[in-house]
Amino acid sequence: MSGPTLVIELAEPLSPAALREFRALVVALSSHFDEKRPGFFDVNVPAERLGVEDDREEDWRKPFPLPLLGDASADEELTALVGFNPQREDWRRPFLVYLMGPGVGDESTFEAEHADEPEVEAVLGFRPTHAVNVSAGCNREIDHVATALLATAVMDVIGGVAKAELLDGQASVVAGLPGVLGIADDDWMVLGTAEFLRAWVGHPAFRLVK
Fold it and tell me: Which DSSP symbol is given to 137?
């Protein structure tokens, strides 16, 4: 994915009931929902469903350069393309939200992402058995906010601890926020509760790592 990612660390496998609640939450938040396998969701989540205003005007998108489709000369056609991006941005906020680990899928990804993390395990107080990745498909400021709020909504349902990479200088910012369990990996990683994610989103220095 081309946007930020948050990881939700789990101390035990999700029960069938918890997996159903997880799925029901993602379905309720999504304007598009595609289930690749149990616990793996390819979705579009409008920011408004997470309580965030997307303040772009309805007519913010520029029209395609019609001269390219008409009788313009070759030079005029090239001029029309300057500074033009034919891939219009989508308001729908694409995400991959997926459970991974032994017995559920993406085991190799889970193992690779959790190899040799003694500091993280010491902060958590457990060795994760499974995890949920929340990955955004876009990288605008609103996508960072939406990623954190979507992860928070998931944690409210299934529990777990958020693990987020930090940008240079962010460790001192997040250290004093409520819900922080600890900072690891030489100040490049923070672990915290859903309360922490909510507090961080509201901080002026908030930004996830792409």
Answer: S
Other CB atoms within 10 Å distance of the CB of residue 157: 16
Sequence-distant (6+) residues with CB within 8 A of 41 are: 23, 26, 30, 33, 34, 35, 95, 96, 97, 98
Token pair belonging to 96: 């991959």
Q: What is the pLDDT of residues 111-164, one digit of tens each?
A: 998 988 889 999 999 999 999 999 999 999 999 999 999 999 999 999 999 999
Joined tokens for residue 56: 């772009």
Q: What is the DSSP letter of 35?
A: E
Q: If you search the block for the tokens 């994610």, which residue do you land on?
A: 197
Q: Which pTM was predicted? A: 0.82
pLDDT tens string 44-102: 999 999 998 765 544 444 444 444 444 545 455 544 445 444 444 445 689 999 999 99
Contact between 198 and 50 (Cβ < 8 Å): no
Own/partner long-range contacts of 175-184 (Cβ < 8 Å, ≥24 apart): 177/203, 181/123, 181/124, 182/122, 182/123, 183/123, 184/117, 184/119, 184/120, 184/122, 184/123
Which spans in the chain are helix H? 16-29, 74-81, 107-113, 118-124, 141-158, 171-174, 194-201
Token digits for 126? 């457990």
Side chain identity at residue 72, one-letter code: A
For the chain, the C-alpha Rg in angstroms (whole number) is 20
